[in-house]
Amino acid sequence: MSVDAYLNFNGNCREAAEFYAVVFGLDKPKLMTFGEVPPHPDYPLPEEAKNMIMHTRLNIGGSNVMFSDVFPGMPFTVGNNITLAYVEDEEEKIRTAFNRLSDGGTIVMELQETFWSKLYGQVTDKFGIQWQFNLGINEF
Question: pTM here?
């Protein structure tokens, strides 16, 4: 499968993704906003988040680069706004890598089912590198 770069933006993800598409001669990206996400009754969506980008992806020179705005109220630090996304079709490989990177690191989000993946989680490893884990390819 792949390890992809995941870039976070502070409210200007749409502008950045569309800019990079032009720079690299790509089609206009498909954009999923936080407002398009299935609602969760325990976590109402703030009005300012509705048009922010939850996810988009560009294939630049054969490599997937994914993009998202940080959710309102979440920390954003320029220089720390990139993670590595490990995308894999085999659940056991996801679990093994997640557990190994968790050793000495910090689990940000336990592996769990989400609306886009049967298994997703986040870890910051002992070197401070942020990782996302996603079972299967998200075709969005």
Answer: 0.71
